[in-house]
Amino acid sequence: MKSVAEQMELIRRGVEQIVPEAELVRKLERSVATGKPLRIKYGIDPTGIDVHLGHTVPLRKLRLFQELGHQAVLILGNYTALVGDPSGRDQTRARLTQEQVEANAIDYLKQISKVIDVEKTEVVRNGDWFSCMSFLDVMRLTAQITVQRMLERDDFTKRIQSGTPISLHECLYPLMQGQDSVEICADVELGGTEQLFNLMVGRRLQEAAGQEPQVCVTSPILCGLDGVRRMGKSLNNYVGVGEPASEQFGKTMSIPDLLLCQWFTLLSDRAPEEVEVLTDLQRTPPMEAKKRLGSDIVACYHGAEAAVKARADWEKQFSRGEAPTDVEEVEVLASSLNGGQLPTFKLLVALKLAPSGNEARRLVQGGGVTIGEEQAKVSDPNQAIAVVTGLLVRAGRKWRKVRLA
Amino acid sequence: MKSVAEQMELIRRGVEQIVPEAELVRKLERSVATGKPLRIKYGIDPTGIDVHLGHTVPLRKLRLFQELGHQAVLILGNYTALVGDPSGRDQTRARLTQEQVEANAIDYLKQISKVIDVEKTEVVRNGDWFSCMSFLDVMRLTAQITVQRMLERDDFTKRIQSGTPISLHECLYPLMQGQDSVEICADVELGGTEQLFNLMVGRRLQEAAGQEPQVCVTSPILCGLDGVRRMGKSLNNYVGVGEPASEQFGKTMSIPDLLLCQWFTLLSDRAPEEVEVLTDLQRTPPMEAKKRLGSDIVACYHGAEAAVKARADWEKQFSRGEAPTDVEEVEVLASSLNGGQLPTFKLLVALKLAPSGNEARRLVQGGGVTIGEEQAKVSDPNQAIAVVTGLLVRAGRKWRKVRLA
Predict the structure, then answer these.
(1) Does A115 score more than 80 pLDDT?
(2) Among chain B residues, CA nearest to A137
(3) Which A-chain residues 84-123 have CB contacts (< 8 A) with chain B?
(4) How far A107 CA sits from the closest chain B CA (Å)?
(5) Quick check: A229 contacting B, CB < 8 Å?
């Protein structure tokens, strides 16, 4: 087991808050002295998550605790999912059926198996205790917090101010999450920074139950590809852990330079000194830094070999303007041509590089369309192109080869 | 069965609000047409109530509905009592055990048997349904109202403004009360005016459950003996239904004249025209009106004969200054006398007319102590009194006769 100082150094990396830090040090000291691992809680509601890099931030911290010899306890909130956690959201979420929730839970475990060691994780479902609770038990639970305290939560405050309804059942959520900590005797709970309130409720309930309260370790919110908003599915600014290597690599290459430091810190295992070198313009060109970052990320989800190939493919396509080796061939009917030619926008549609003529025109006007062995840029959507078998056409990152039929 | 118009005339008497009145008319019309009685709900939490005249106001309305041929449904909130209703209170109430609650329920039924016909009443305990509810059921219930709506309740608003904590479990109360209406399919719910919010929640839950919503009939709050504040045990301005006839009569005689109209309307069966005559100074002296009111009240709880006796006794004591016929004799030890005498304040203590010498002095100074056949007023607490068997002593409305031993 590593020393307390070594453990703290690794735990501190990239976290937002440790509340209270002194208690974590004491817990680690006791753990080192007795050889007894700490119980590290992380909970999610299986509401149908496409796990993306944003989700991996606290999960990677959980894996770190596993590597340090501690016991990861993953709470599948199959009961809380039936409520819908309002944290960080501005409206009441739809409720799911128990069957949907269970299917989601299984799917979620599969997705995160690339981030944490699921085999060594204690996986528990909070329906195990909540389904046994009576109305009276719920009352005892709700008696432990005041309405005023509940409304101090940032998102609730905002919803009150904006007049957005808060369903009363949403107030049960933080209490349920807190009760989970009591049930599993958590030493530490991990979560995004917007979870701090819920995590603190856990401390309170543990104290009321005569337990030593957990330490709350919160992670910052990962910025999405746009470099501004949090990574999220609805914002379409995410990299999914299940996406192909080329997609993960290509999307990573598109992030603003300013994101490099956050992404390296939260998404790779590189030490702070390395990150410093990689994000210093004088020492590493941003393009090279992004390639390293992209390789790091692909390596996590597809392995080292795939990372090398993803980088090579990307460089072939974009850095040197060459077509990749495995371009998709699409049939074009000779009868659709006019004197062996087609206007560029029609060709793009025929090759499924654009869903409509209008979209095709926009692609050309955006400067992303090149044609032929020399990949000459086309600037007029109506420009007539001589269509022959083997003609290479590129729109953005997509390539097609014509097969005349 | 009386006509709808006749029923409405009686129901309207002395009520604060009927929400919505048109719906009550429709329900009564259907009831008259089909001969099917309406289900009239009244609920109380058996939290240890000494039933006083204030409590009888909605209960008397329930009895009226019984007399009109409708079905009274009394909810004993044995489950809600475990929460504690915050209505009209400014702080969180202590919770009771289930055993205390059941003992209270039995005691309550006994007390109110003088007001409603308990035999013809459907008496139900809401623990019958709430004890079967799961956490999920509670969530479904709480999902039916928003925090914002809950905080519109007057007393909650005040507590938020004054910074007095509202325990989250108190928010469950209105929902439980509303669910009671769903469970028993209430047509009408009775309650004090401060209950309107809770009653309206019942309408909402019934509609959500596909039921015809109940009509809310609220009663005004009865003023206590002081004529200013609501009647309540803690304010010591109440008349208990279990008190002796003489106490009920005497206390009624002490109310301010201005209360006569409210008390006649809410506590007697007299028709509005009679009440008008009785509260018109030109036609009825207030003293006579109060005697009638006192007799009406005593008749409710002790019968007509007791009412006649209570009035006669009171007149003998106060109107003509005579001692009542059945004065309690108290032994005074001859050995405690000093030359056959005692200072007045010591005599009052010896006769249990005052708990302490200081209290006895205050009684004398207040001018309420008279002694002997002639009932001479004593003005000096230290005045020496010759103590003999048969000596009559009065302090306020209490009389004692000495038996020397």
Answers:
(1) yes
(2) B135
(3) 95
(4) 23
(5) no
Question: What one-character DSSP code corresponds to residue B194?
Answer: G
Confirm or reject contact between A139 and chain B (CB < 8 A).
Answer: yes
Q: What global pTM score does this model have?
A: 0.73
Q: How many alpha carbons lie under 13 Å from residue B117 in its C-beta half-sphere?
A: 12
ipTM rounded to 2 decimals: 0.70
Residue A115's closest CA among A299, A309, A308, A305?
A299
DSSP state of B338: B
pLDDT band at residue A225 using 50, 70 and 90 as cut-offs: very high
A145 and chain B: CB distance < 8 Å anywhere?
A: yes
| pLDDT, tens digit (0-9, with 9 covering 90-100), for A294-331 | 999 999 999 999 999 999 998 887 766 667 777 888 99
Of B131, B135, B165, the CB nearest to A130: B135
Within a 10 A sphere around the Cβ of B9, how many other Cβ atoms?
13
User: Helices B21-34 and B4-12, interaxial angle, to 10°?
Assistant: 140
A57-90: per-residue pLDDT in tens?
A: 999 999 999 999 999 999 999 988 876 554 444 4
Instruction: Name which of B138, B156, B164, B175 to mutate to probe chain A: the one with the most chain A Cβ atoms within 10 A of its Cβ.
Output: B138
At A143 the pLDDT is: 87
pLDDT (0 to 100) of residue B93: 52
Rounded distance between C-alpha atoms, residue B350 and residue B142, angstroms: 61
Cβ–Cβ < 8 Å for A310, A350: no
Residue type, B139: M
Residues of A in contact with B134 (CB under 8 A): 131, 133-134
Alpha-carbon distance of B277 to B20, in angstroms, equals: 32
Residue A282 one-letter amino acid: Q
Tokens of A364: 């050309």
Interface contact flag, B143 A95, Cβ < 8 Å: yes
Structure token digits, residue A101? 């929730």
DSSP letter string, A240-307 = BTTS-HHHHHHHHHTS-GGGHHHHHHHHS---HHHHHHHT-TTTS-HHHHHHHHHHHHHHHHH-HHHH
Per-residue pLDDT tens digits for A353-376: 999 999 999 989 888 888 887 777
Q: Name residues 256-275 of chain A within 8 A of B (Cβ).
A: none
Which residues of chain B have a pLDDT value below 70?
83-95, 319-322
Give the pair of three-digit tokens for residue A94.
Answer: 């739809």
Q: Do B135 and A136 touch (CB under 8 A)?
A: no
- Do the chains contact at A142 and B168, CB–CB below 8 Å? yes
Distance from CA of A177 to the nearest CA of B (A): 14
Q: Hey, of A134, A139, A204, which one would you mutate to test binding to chain B, going by the most B CBs within 10 A of its CB?
A: A139
Q: How far is Cα of residue B328 from the mean position of the Cα atoms in its chain?
A: 29
